[in-house]
Design brief:
420 residues; mainly alpha; Rna Polymerase Sigma Factor, Chain: A; two-stranded parallel sheet; 2 strands
């Protein structure tokens, strides 16, 4: 019996992760109250945890959650004298005869609700950190504890951050309507930036003892696929999906059996995930078709093209570094910035020799990326390739002193020691 309960709870968790965004989105549209919508969704989840282990998982579990939440919304409004009008509106949308309506009959509304929820979570009034936390909470369906673990902060701190974000939206009187025109495109860029932020924190953790946080990588890919399914005509959205899937395909080769970091050139490419590569290349092909029709592309599409160069190379030696360097030159024009320049230096160093890469770094303005390990770590690599071992060791030690990730620090100190 205990095993049956465990499998049922696992099924509930999977259903919640898949359906929570639709549920909260629809309830927010109906109630115009984000906090209430989340409370109602959580009530439905608790009801499932109580009833499904006893009665079994319903045939349409998402519809069961939606119906339960709507009924609780009706009860809530009936108790509130001033909200009787809303009771009628919600009651009208619930067929008492059918009991458990199939979500597929509401697909258009649901897709709009999820998209609204994504845009709401990434509202420009919120900080980047708050957007990421709220997106994982409302759209990803993660608990506050899970999000806190992912970003290495106390659960209480993350709870306060999420509460402040929701209060900010409420106090500002934010409407739960889809933005249109130029505002929609600006907000879409914010949405993609948040998803990419979540992925990067999972792919190379800022701090702590783990090189990666797979749960954040998985959520970022899920969010990218979700937004690509909702916004079909933007190549950048499909480019983002492609980028994340192609990079994530290397996860199995990025650490050894002891959890130590393995750099790209040393990875066993037989461990790369072929299915993720295939999905990433398919998403990139969709983006390329849209671009060919005249739709504009940007940094995610261009980075996906770069990632595809790596994915298509069977060995590190077969990597088309000149093609990658050319793409970084284009990226530097489309989305200029010091991080792009540092990555461009790596590509030029591989394609045209270490001196070419160092020349790109030397062109950076003074103080660029100050306080981060990225610049000295890349400089150390290029100096080592140029045969300037003692200078490279100094750069690697400087980078090791700046990173907060223990696995990354070990790699950098190891490279410094190998140079004497």
């Amino acid at each position: 019996m205990g095993q049956d309960r465990e499998s049922t709870v696992a099924a509930i968790t999977a259903v919640w992760r898949a359906e929570s965004a639709r549920l909260v989105g629809a309830l927010t549209r109906m109630t115009r109250d984000l906090d209430l919508a989340e409370d109602l969704a959580q009530d439905a989840l608790l009801a499932a945890l109580e009833q499904w282990p006893r009665d079994g998982v319903p045939a349409t579990p998402g519809a069961w959650l939606m119906t339960t939440a709507k009924r609780r919304a009706i009860d809530t409004f009936r108790r509130a004298e001033t909200l009787r009008r809303r009771t009628a509106e919600i009651g009208h949308s619930l067929s008492e005869e059918d009991g458990m309506p199939d979500l597929s009959t509401q697909v258009d509304s649901i897709e709009d609700d999820v998209l609204r929820l994504i845009f709401l979570s990434c509202h420009p009034r919120l900080t980047a950190e708050s957007r990421a936390a709220l997106t994982l909470r409302l759209v990803g369906g993660l608990t506050t504890a899970e999000i806190a673990r992912g970003f290495l902060v106390p659960e209480a701190t993350m709870g306060q951050r999420i509460s402040r974000a929701k209060r900010t939206l409420t106090d500002a009187g934010i409407e739960f309507d889809l933005p249109v025109g130029t505002e929609r495109m600006a907000r879409l860029d914010d949405v993609m930036a948040v998803i990419y932020l979540v992925f990067n924190e999972g792919y190379t953790a800022t701090a702590g003892s783990d090189w990666m946080r797979p749960e954040l990588i998985a959520e970022a890919i899920r969010l990218a696929r979700m937004i690509a399914a909702l916004v079909l005509d933007e190549p950048e959205v499909h480019g983002l999906q492609a980028l994340l899937e192609l990079q994530a395909s290397r996860m199995g080769a990025r650490v050894d059996a002891s959890g130590n970091a393995v750099l790209l050139e040393d990875q066993d490419r037989a461990l790369w995930d072929v299915l993720l590569i295939r999905r990433g290349l398919a998403a990139l092909a969709t983006a390329e078709q849209l671009a060919a029709s005249g739709r504009p592309v940007g940094r995610y599409f261009l980075q996906a093209v770069i990632a595809a160069h790596h994915a298509r190379a069977d060995t590190a030696q077969e990597t088309d570094w000149r093609g990658i360097a050319r793409m970084y030159d284009v990226l530097a024009q489309a989305a200029p910035g010091p991080v792009v320049e540092v990555n461009r230096a790596v590509a030029h160093g591989r394609a045209y020799g270490a001196a070419a890469g160092l020349a790109v770094l030397d062109a950076l303005p003074d103080g660029a990326l100050a306080g981060t390990h990225l610049l000295p770590s890349v400089r150390g690599d290029l100096l080592a390739r140029a045969g300037r071992g003692s200078e490279a060791a100094v750069a690697f030690r400087e980078a090791a002193g700046l990173t907060q990730n223990e696995r990354e620090r070990a790699v950098l100190l190891g490279r410094a020691e190998s140079l004497g």
